[in-house]
Every structure is written in C-alpha cells, then in structure tokens.
Amino acid sequence: IKAQVPTFESIARGISKGEYKKIIIMCGAGISVASGIPDFRSPKTGLYANLEKYNLPYPEAIFDISYFAEKPEPFFTLARELYPGNFEPTPVHHFFKLLEKKNVLKRVYTQNIDTLERCAGVSENKIVEAHGSFATASCQNCGEEYKAIDIKSTIMSGKIPYCKYCEKGIVKPDITFFGEQLAQKFWWHESDFPKADLLIVMGTSLQVEPFCDLIKNVPQNCHRLLINNVEVAVNRSSGYRKKTDMGFKFNEKSNYRDAKKIGDCQKSIKELVELIGWNKEFKKLMKK
Ligand code: OAD
Fold it and tell me: Where, by residue number, does Zn(2+) bind (predicted)?
C-alpha cells in the first residue's frame, strides 16, 4: 500500500485527530513581518535591500563579528529600530502557544531574535532561539552578562553601551553573528529532531547554515509542511551534498511526505486553525 502524500488539509485533520504529538516548528523572519519587523532577504522590503544608509561593504556585514569589532555603529542603529518591546506577537506566534497548550509542541526552533515567541507566552524550554536574541547581552571584553533592560536606554539614546565593570568592552546583545558559535541550545536538535512526527517550516528562506540543514534530521516517516509565501530550497554553499538530499520534494515522484502552503503565513495559520477546529480557543488566546 502506498502511503498518501500529505496535504495542508490532511495535516490539519491529523492534528485535529491527535495523530501528531511531537510537532517541531522551524521558523524565520517571515513570521514576524506582520508585526512590523522586516525580514532579511525579501527583494525591496527585506532588511538587506535597505541598508544603504549604513554604508556597509556587503549587507551581512551588519551581523558580522569582525566587522562589528571595527564598526559597531551600524548594528546599534539597527538594534534601536528592532529592539524588543516595540512589537506584538502575530497569530503565528499565538499558534505556537496553542500547540503547547494542546501538548503537541515538541519545540520551536526560531532564527528570529525578536523574542516574539516568548511574548506570545511560549515557555522558555519550548523555544530554541538558534541565533540568540536581544533578551540578554554580554561584554565583548570581560564576558559580564547583562539583561536587555540594562542596555536598552543607552541603545535607544543612540549611544553604544560599554561595560560598567571593565569599562572597556562593548556590551553586545547575545545575537549570533556570522563568525560566532550558535547558541548552546541549538544542539537540542540532536535529540529533538529524531523524535518529531511533524515538522512545520515557516517564514524562512532556508539560506543560513547550519539551521537550514535541520530539515533533513527528522525521521523518514515524519511529514514536513512548508508554509511560506514563496517556495524555498536549501542551497548549500559547500555543495558536498546534492541539493535534492536536502530540500522539500514537492514536485518529485519520490515525494511521499512533503506538503506546502504557499501564501501569507498569517492567513495560512488562520486557515489551519479553522480546519483543525481550534478557532474559539485561538481567538481567546489572541485576545489575552
Ligand atoms: P529571510 O528574510 O531570509 O527569509 C524570510 C522568508 O519568509 C522569505 O522566503 C520570504 O519570502 C518569507 N516571507 C516573508 N513574509 C512572509 C509572509 N507574510 N508570509 C509567508 N512568508 C513570508 O529570513 P530568515 O530565513 O529568517 O541571521 O533568515 C535567516 C537568518 O539570516 C536570520 O536569522 C539572520 C539572517 O542573516 C542572523 O541574524 C544571525
């Protein structure tokens, strides 16, 4: 018997019937666009297309640790715009909380640094902020740790926060820059992903390694659902694996487990919730 290739609708039915009990979410900037935070790579509206004012040698320099050591100003100018506290979680973030309440959320792996998963009430032990977040910060010289609130007023007033202990180092929010180690919690994936029974990938271009590689780490029989406004594939710069080993297989005969919903993720999530039959609870959660 050939298993049915899952669809958005069949996955909704599965969630409704309690067939998925260990759902892993992998998400990125696209889920926070509705709250007013631009994503990175969307042409025209994405952050990387709008960095002219910072005079960067290349867009990613704003998150590059060696560039930061020389010139921290562009990052802090941006940090002022993106600082947590100014944005509200979106329906997608509330959906994560609903999955947790229903006891079917294994973990949310987010690349986002905006802390909106926390703001939606998702428990800290259910969230892996793979690229760190603004929630904490540390001195680049002595390592002294700070909370977001400790450096907020300095950043907001357009100044660069220096360590009050060693008085030398810049206090940098604990966001993982290019050239830095990923957050320790990222390694939870080694035990999480082999246990997943549904993977939902949402609002990410899957361009940044090693995060994007995780989509292959779920079991062979685990369904994978992409919710994004464009189709995405994992493009490995190193190229030692074939692209087809990594990406979704929507259009291939060999696909037996990948489904997609292309369009605005907020709209798709509302549709998913409706199909599952969780509308009432969802609305209640969003009102809180
Ligand atoms: P990207 O900007 O690369 O990708 C966002 C994806 O979301 C794109 O495919 C968009 O088309 C899609 N998108 C945008 N709005 C959407 C919407 N309303 N509904 C559905 N899809 C939407 O952002 P990430 O994949 O998160 O690193 O980027 C990964 C990492 O690259 C970031 O964590 C950041 C960056 O350099 C660091 O900050 C260290």
Answer: 139, 142, 163, 166
**Is 114 among the annotated ligand-binding positions?**
yes
ipTM of predicted complex:
0.98
Could you give the C-alpha distances from 269 to 49, 156, 202, 251, in angstroms and in order? 27, 34, 10, 23
Known binder of ligand: residue 39? yes
pTM exceeding the 0.90 threshold for the entire prediction: yes
Q: Which pLDDT does position 3 carry in this prediction?
A: 66
- Tell whether 107 is in a known binding site: no
Annotated active-site residue 223? The verdict is no
The one-letter code for the residue type at 133 is S
Position 239 pLDDT exceeds 90: no
The pocket around ligand 1, CB under 6 angstroms, is made up of 28-30, 33-34, 39-42, 46, 63, 111, 113, 131, 175-176, 203-205, 207-208, 228-230, 232, 264-265
| Centroid of ligand 1 to alpha carbon of 165 (angstroms) | 36
Count Cβ neighbours within 10 Å for each residue of 245-254 and write b for 16 or more, e otherwise. Answer: ebbbeeeeee
Q: Residue 160 C-alpha to ligand 1 middle, in angstroms?
A: 27
Write the DSSP assignment of 122-161 as a string of letters.
--GGGEEETTEEEEEEEETTT--EEEHHHHHHHHHTTPPP
Name residue 261's beta-bridge partners.
227
pLDDT score, position 81: 86
For residues 93 and 33, the answer to whether their CB atoms sit within 8 Å is no
Q: Among 40-44, 141-145, 207-211, 239-243, where is mean pLDDT lowest?
A: 239-243
User: How far apart are alpha carbons 234 and 219 in whole angstroms?
Assistant: 18
Instruction: Indicate the range of 48-52, 131-135, 152-156, 241-245 predicted with least confidence.
Output: 241-245
Whether the CB-CB separation of 80 and 156 falls below 8 Å is answered with yes
